[in-house]
Amino acid sequence: MNISPTPESPSVLWPKIERVNVGMFTTVDEHGQLISRPMMNQQVDQSGFLWFFTSDESKVSHNIAVQPGVNVSYADHDENLYVSVTGHAEQIKDHDKIRELWNPLISAWFPQGIDDPHLILIKVTIESAEYWDLDPGKALQLFKLAKAAITGKPPEEEPSEHGKINL
Known about the structure:
This protein is an alpha+beta fold.
């Protein structure tokens, strides 16, 4: 297993998350239940923040107001990439940041555009992240996994790159 060293910044995350783009954003509701929904990631900046658009009337907005601890998980099964990010979410009404991150796809949810009175950003401060990334070009490693599954003996080497990031 290749565990990468903790980087100085979350810059190792963005290329992985960018490949997936939509994450399952998990919050805790007022009853303590975990609730997940797909949300499109807008940016991972160099300060360790994930950015998402939402409405201040949405369930996710309400859940964050009650309990700001969140998890965002990304999976690309075709690429064998899995990322789990844990952090603290807050709601931001910053028109300059909204303009910076706005793209035409967002108008599907906000037809009034950047002037929608309910449009806000969710800023997630990344506290920790973990990823598993299997290079799909490593046919030999896939063969070793298949062999291990058939024989019941673990493979000699773990075929994935695994890393942990604590901020």
